[in-house]
Amino acid sequence: MAPRTKQEDEPEGKPTETLDVAPAVSTAALIEDDPWDMPELQDTGIKWADLDTKGKILRVVTTAAKLILLLGLLYMFVCSLDLLSSAFQLVGGKAAGDIFQENTVLSNPLAGLVIGMLVTLLVQSSSTSSSIVVSMVSSGLLEVATAVPIIMGTNIGTSVTNTVVAMTQVGDRNKFRRAFAGATVHDFFNWLSVLVLLPLEIATGYLVKLTELIIKSFNIQSGENAPALLNVITDPLTHSIIELDESVISGIATGDPEAKNKSLIKVWCQTASNTTVQNVTASNCSDFPCWELKNVTEVFNIKKCSHIFVSTNLSDLAVGLILLACSLLILCTCLILIVKLLNSMLKGQVAVAINKIMNTDFPFPFAWLTGYIAILVGAGMTFIVQSSSVFTSAITPLVGIGVIKLERAYPLSLGSNIGTTTTAILAAMASPGETLGNSLQIALVHLFFNLSGIVLWYPIPFTRLPIRLAKALGQITAQYRWFSGFYIIFCFFVFPLLVFGLSLAGWQVLVGVLVPIVAVLIFVIIVNILQKHKPQWLPSALRSWDFLPLWAHSLEPWDRVVTIMAARCCCCCKCCKVTEEDEETGTHENKDQEIEMYDNPTMTETKEAKKTSGSCEILKATSL
Fold this sequence. Notes:
two-stranded antiparallel ribbon; globular
């Protein structure tokens, strides 16, 4: 028999004595976890030595199958990016050529910057947009100094792809924080570089002078085309779906009247040309006909292309929209599957090993070299895949799942900016002798622009502002995930179109609108910095933004608005579905309900009132 407690022995009327003991408080809650800490990758699997023969064979087969599947998904991912670029060129390629043809607008540096950015967004390829600029410079339609802001704009436009790729991890808050920061660190580097170097170039023209000096110093001769490394693998699949004639866009940009009536879809893949000297009627003869000798080139079609749309009757826009929908579907599917497959593969010893290789610095005397080695790795990998968008989009999911740190992804992105310019340099080397100097000079401008940005924003840790800005934006988007969509739409579409529209109205209007906005932004940034570090330097009114309305200094009111709108949209969609289901099942239920309505109408009214009150309660809760 168990002994009785002390309270059972004492009479009910006698109060029990209690000891005042302070409650135990855990200090674990006081220590906040850093959201940017890498997730712990522990070896939780069964060790190889503990497996029997069947288990070892099964692990080898499973790992090999996952690796083959991963390579296949990466291949489809790269091909989908290629198809996405082709789709954007079909949808907006001719419009891009028309935009480049507006030489009066291009004389404005800000307008040139925005045009380069918008055209790169339209064709989803900085290589294509920069090649258009090179062809315009080679043909004499653009001067090198005028083309420099356009090249800077192409650098910004190419960084939107990996930002969109980060949106695929929006389901997990921590992964989305890291992935979006890893993608936007590339954006901030490009924006900050343009913000500093574009005014410097307008004032001094140092990029034009430096590249001109290099061209004159070296006896550079024409060479071969840029090597097709990754394209050798991807072209068989992508060219079986669509093949484009990129000379049409360059022809429109250079003012060729025949190019406007041509289709971008390539029909003849093998042609031959024959140039002969013929008598041609001169255009400057008025009184009597006269002739002059000219070189006339005739093109003979030999072999048709073998892609799907070679004999289609659809317009370029229709084919582009079809490819756009299909490529986006393949792109998102491949990214989701790649992330899930990497999560299953990067466990145990593999994850620990990759984490050590990617994120460990060199020993103490040479620790500063680690980032520069990462820049070289990023440049080399981008040169192999011949696309900075492909490389940065591939490392974005790795940052999200915690394999690569943001501090390591930053130099890799900087290296990708350099790698994409080497391809343009090799392509410029293939230009004919009379246009080689200008073509190569523009390619070198792109290279030295990125090198100047690296000198500004990487060597000194204090100057690595893109990392801090990307972390701040990652925190905001993790808390308010709708803000990521607002960031992409505003920074890459609304703001460039606004600047472009103001530039069309004249530089007086552009300066009158942008200067006050820039002044306010600079004031807000300075006040924010002082509020954080030196609040005593500010007047008491400016030590916080509480004197402003809540919507002017906080995203919480906007978040409530977005939440209410999303809830009402979902409610409306559900109501529509319920209504359709009721209409479908109503024919079967009406026969039974007619008897009930005639027999007991009071109950029928009661049921209808309950349904109405229930829907009203849902709407009230949604509005609250």
